[in-house]
Design a protein that fits this description.
The protein has 719 residues and is α+β, with helices and mostly antiparallel strands. The chain folds into 5 domains: 4-193, Hypothetical protein af1432 (Orthogonal Bundle); 206-334, Beta Polymerase, domain 2, CATH 3.30.460.10; 385-462, Ubiquitin-like (UB roll), CATH 3.10.20; 483-542, no CATH class; 556-615, no CATH class. Helices cover 47% and strands 17% of the residues. Strand 9 (387-391) and strand 10 form a beta hairpin. Helix 4 (63-71) crosses helix 7. The protein starts with a helix and ends with a strand. The structure holds manganese (II) ion. Manganese (II) ion (MN) binds at residues 48, 72-73, 139.
Length: 719
């Protein structure tokens, strides 16, 4: 354990003007407060705050941070209070300790269900003063270094938490060494076998390459000397975890030196950095696609460096990072460099990112970023600020990208839960499924086994996982639905030509149309890629022409008001049915045509009143059925059309045609021709169709004839 004088000596080396009296006082205070307490390893407890202080001292941080590190566990673990700390050390220190304590509580309760609240505290504490987080990271680093003293289940829990939260956070803050060490310490607990095998491979590779590292460093130094560049050249072994991650990502083993070693050239100024880069590239061939210039495109945490890979000695690949001293400082301590001291003064490093701006960036997100390579990094890598952490009712953390909705959440747990999701509660409140989730919310999913993914969900989800699952399910359902609709269309189309639909007929049609099987045939009928008429034409080429001529022209009917030998047809535009007021129009070629009294086409017809006949339907004409058309707009859900068709059938009406007029992902409209007895029968059918919750509109459809400018079917009356 460090004694206070060792710490003081280290601090003096970079900040000789620090308040050493206060630092000594905090050391004594912490030592006394923790008296009688021991760590899991058996050491006295105060060794821990001192080691944490030592880590922040290595970062060359200010005295307030060091003092807070020494006191960080006093409020949580001893009799000290925040008031007391404020009296002795001042408001700044007590507030910092308060922040760290809140973060500590957050960890302690991570097994309990109420930690959603605590997660909010993390962000609250962070946004007040980022030094809280620096101390917390240092605290976590020391706890991870000594984790072997804990029981294994605790080791695993802490390691997962470190891997998922603290290491990415350190990375996000630009503290490379911190992130790598946290990851590696967690890796050692979570997957020691993988880690050991990587280390074994290290050792053999080092032997095989015959200690190439010093030779490569020498090569680079010789080359730089030629250009008169004064620079530090170092070689460094990559951490097992970052190698393992790369192996996972690329799905390949590591065989090259460049996979395990990175070399670094640190120059005095930026011009030298670029000269060094040119020099390295002239001496060794650059490997294509490996060059990145983060000096001209710095990362949002202030990281600046040139990255390149060259074919070095004996063609062996060598990865080189080139940057200046100042850039190197930011690369190692990131945002923390803002608080660091050199020669007794706050370091004025132009590349350090202002922590307040950095924090604002955290909440603003990087969507607005005009730096594409940086944006790519954000999308590609798992970044803390792009994520939200939400909780299941059992308190498990679900990590989601920012922008995710309860549906994403449901699919993140299990596809089955996603598929059957009908609603969601966030923090106990019912919210719409398109609600964007926020950090720390607890989410529960309301399910129904009858539910199926909806096409509207595609626009509500953010994660690829949910999108893929929804699309797959929708495709399946769509096909089932298309087959069902196709069956209905086939039935109607066959009936029109007086035939019955049989499997054999459909098989023959499929063969003639070069369609794989009957299901595919029905599916393409259902999706209107193939029309009913086309299907009939394949089987009965002659029938189809007969059908159009036949229309309803042959259906001669008797009406009250006609001579006994006179018959009339109903007009195909308005398709009147018994019960409606009608008028007969006598036309030379066509005979007498019966229109509904409110048919729009009447105004375009002959005004000669002698040709207008006052007619009415014969009494008791119920044995006949009369064609009429409805436009139905319905929700594009599974089985809706099939259900409507059978509903109409149950009401004793025949369906003779179905046309799709408007097909959108959510809704579609059909014009359906049905045969009804009379107006009462029709309105009975319309009422029962309308009563279906998936139906938006049911209207009687009447066509305006060619004489009018509007040739599209128009809705003229709505019962
Ligand atoms: Mn601690």
């Amino acid at each position: 354990m460090f004694n206070i004088e060792e710490l003081i000596k280290k601090i003096k080396s970079y900040n000789p003007l620090a308040n050493f009296d206060l630092i000594r006082k905090s050391f004594d205070y912490g030592f006394n407060a923790h008296k009688g307490q021991y760590r899991a390893s058996g050491e006295i407890y105060f060794t821990h705050p001192v080691e944490v202080a030592n880590i922040v001292i290595d970062l060359k941080l200010d005295e307030a941070t060091i003092i807070t590190a020494l006191l960080h566990d006093t409020v949580e673990d001893t009799d000290s209070s925040l008031n007391q700390l404020e009296r002795v050390f001042g408001k700044e220190i007590s507030q910092l300790v308060d922040g760290v304590t809140k973060l500590t509580n957050l960890e302690l309760s991570s097994l309990e269900t109420k930690h959603a609240e605590n997660f909010r505290k993390l962000f609250m504490a962070m946004s007040k003063d980022l030094r809280v987080l620096l101390i917390k990271l240092a605290d976590r680093l020391h706890n991870m270094r000594t984790i072997k003293a804990l029981p294994i289940n605790k080791q695993i829990r802490k390691s997962k938490e470190t891997m998922e939260i603290f290491a990415p956070l350190a990375g996000r803050m630009g503290m490379q060494f911190m992130r790598e060490e946290l990851e590696d310490l967690s890796f050692r607990v979570l997957n020691s076998e993988a880690r050991n095998s990587i280390i074994r491979r290290f050792i053999t590779l080092r032997k095989e390459t015959d200690d190439l590292v010093p030779k490569i460093i020498d090569d680079i130094q010789q080359q730089l000397k030629k250009e008169n560049i004064n620079a530090r050249v170092t070689g460094r072994e990559k951490k097992p975890y970052s190698i393992w991650r790369k192996m996972q990502y690329k799905k390949e083993g590591f065989t090259r030196l460049s996979d395990i070693f990175a070399f670094r050239i640190v120059t005095k100024n930026e011009i030298d950095a670029y000269i060094a880069m040119g020099s390295v590239h002239r001496r060794w061939r650059a490997v294509p696609g490996k060059f990145k210039d983060y000096i001209s495109h710095p990362k949002s945490n202030g990281y600046r460096s040139i990255h390149t890979t060259v074919s070095g000695r004996d063609g062996k690949r060598v990865e080189v990072q080139i940057r200046t001293d100042e850039m190197d400082e930011v690369a190692e301590s990131g945002v923390a460099a803002h608080w660091s001291y050199r020669d007794g003064e706050r370091v004025k490093n132009p590349f350090v990112v202002d922590p307040f701006k950095w924090l604002r960036g955290l909440s603003d997100g990087f969507i607005k970023s005009d730096n594409p390579s940086e944006f790519f990094e954000h999308v590609k890598l798992e970044m803390f600020q792009d994520q939200v952490f939400c909780f299941t009712p059992k308190g498990e953390v679900i990590k989601l990208p920012r922008g995710a909705t309860p549906i994403d959440f449901a699919y993140a747990i299990h596809t089955r839960i996603g598929d059957s999701c009908v609603g969601s509660m966030v923090d106990g409140q019912r919210v719409p499924l398109w609600t964007k989730l926020k950090n720390g919310q607890s989410v529960s999913i309301i399910r129904s086994e009858a539910q199926k993914p909806q096409s509207s969900w595609e626009n509500m989800v953010y994660t690829g996982r949910a999108k893929t699952a929804i699309r797959r399910k929708l495709r399946e359902e769509k096909r089932k639905e298309n087959i069902r609709i196709g069956k209905e269309i086939a039935r109607v189309s066959f009936e029109k030509v007086g035939k019955k639909v049989t499997d054999k007929a459909l098989q023959t049609a499929a063969k003639k149309l070069v369609i794989n099987n009957v299901d595919d045939l029905l599916a393409s009928l259902g999706s209107v890629e193939l029309t009913g008429d086309e299907l009939i034409k394949t089987l009965y080429p002659k029938k189809i022409t007969g059908l159009t001529i036949q229309n309803f022209g042959e259906r001669k009917l008797s009406f009250v008001g006609l001579e006994p030998n006179q018959q009339a047809n109903t007009a195909s535009c308005c398709k009147p049915v018994p019960g409606e007021r009608i008028v007969g129009i006598a036309q030379k070629q066509k005979g007498i045509i019966i229109h509904a009294i409110d048919c729009d086409n009447l105004q375009n017809l002959d005004n000669n009143s002698r040709n207008w006949l006052d007619l009415s339907w014969p009494n008791g004409d119920v044995q006949n059925s009369h064609p009429t058309s409805l436009t139905i707009s319905m929700y594009n859900g599974v089985g809706v059309l099939g259900r409507i068709c059978s509903l109409i059938g149950e009401r004793g009406a025949n369906i003779t045609n179905i046309d799709f007029v408007d097909r959108k992902p959510d809704f579609y409209s059909i014009i359906i021709e049905i045969h009804v007895k009379d107006l009462k029968h029709l309105s009975d059918i319309m009422t029962s169709v309308e009563a279906d919750s998936d139906i938006a509109v049911v209207v009687r459809t009447r066509e305006v004839l060619e004489t009018s400018s509007n040739q599209n079917p128009r809705i003229l009356s709505n019962y």
